[in-house]
Amino acid sequence: MSRYDDFDKYAAYEEEFDPTNFDRRARRKRKPKARHVPKKTVSEQLIEIAGDDFSLDHFESFKTTYTPSLYEADWLIDSLRSFFEEDLISDVLALVKGGKEASVYRCATGPAYEGDYLAAKVYRPRKFRNLTNDQMYRDGRELLSDKDEIIDNSDHRTMRAIKKHSSFGRQVEHTSWLMYEFRTLQEMYEVGGAVPKPVEVNENTILMSYIGDANRAASSLNKIRIEDRDEAYYLYDIVMNNVDLMLSMDMIHGDLSPYNILYWEGDIVLIDFPQVVNSRGNTQAAFILRRDIERVCEYFVRQGVERDAKAVFSDFYERYIAPDPQNFIADHWHEEFDDDEE
Are 88 and 113 in contact (CB under 8 A)? Predict the structure, then answer.
């Protein structure tokens, strides 16, 4: 049996955390009728969730400090157990951030990793993202497998499953989306980019360095008011240097904004890269880059940084995307775009 055959097993979790499902009366209408079946033991439930090859004794030593909800617990077990078995993590301490695509948890490290904490970004099951225009980001990108290998278009079974939107097809797209984020983290970290250190990945989770301490996680930049003008310019330069670095590797973040930049102890780290696009192969690269630049500049202008978003975009566009940016700016600068920030 394919591991993708169980792709819908967390539908109940998705239902519980769907932001549109907060009407009590509607929930009561959707409540299924009681089914009187013998209750399974805890051991039976864990073996069913994790698979026959999972050691129950090993799992029982994995006592999480963080107390998840009923369906979230199953989700976490399935998503994090490979890292626990590899001794990379030993405990889940806290939920750092719950989002429309994924939730981030602060984890205590295991014997196989030096340091106190790691961050686990666990993608939501099934409809793990909530983007209505994800094809815009997929343009110019090939599909990646969970082994970080390109899936050949001649793989007719996979291509047919994706076209039919089957469970297997959705899982392939899900995995590819996640693997682009992990690959981008790897490539950026290797060249000194301001990103978390990628540690490990599985089909549903990215394990990376944790930004923060035992008391709190780093705040997103949108929650920070930078009082010192010199610090504001310093942080702005870091962001734009990383935009430049990504463009030099033919990449655009795709969703860059103060919401996806962490601030910690006077420095910043860029996060959330699943929407990274190919600056050479994506037909909407100019539009996506312009949106990233405009969002960042709007924030830093409010912090006292005197920068013209049009001029910044023009410089990047001319150096990395096209020789003549003026026509694009004249035709598209005031074009509206959807704001899908959290």
Answer: yes
Strand, helix or coil at 187? helix
Model pTM score: 0.77
Q: Residue range 256-273: average pLDDT?
A: 96
Of the candidates 294, 297, 305, the residue with the CA atom closest to the CA atom of residue 226 = 305
- Report the distance separating Cα 342 and Cα 339, nearest Å: 9
Rounded Cα distance, 80 and 92, in Å: 9
Residue 56, Cβ neighbours under 10 Å: how many? 12
256 or 64: which leads in pLDDT: 256
Neighbours of 58 (CB within 10 A): 12
Question: Are 13 and 71 a contacting pair, CB within 8 Å?
Answer: yes
Q: Taken in order 31, 36, 41, 44, is the CA torsion positive or negative?
A: negative
Instruction: Tell me the H-state helices in 165-228.
Output: 167-190
- The answer to whether 287 touches 336, Cβ cutoff 8 Å, is no
pLDDT 10s digits, 133-178:
677 887 878 877 777 777 777 776 777 776 777 777 777 777 788 9
Of 174, 165, 162, 169, residue with least CA distance to 201: 174
Residue written as tokens 């026509």?
A: 327
Q: Which domains does the chain have, with CATH numbers?
A: 3-209 (3.30.200.20), 219-332 (1.10.510.10)
Alpha carbons 331 and 10: distance in angstroms, whole number: 45
Nearest to 290 by CA among 324, 313, 266: 313
Which of 89, 295, 277 lies closest to 181 in space, CA to CA? 277
Residues linked to residue 201 through DSSP beta bridges, in sequence order: 206
- Tell the residue number behind the tokens 């199953």, with chain if given: 74
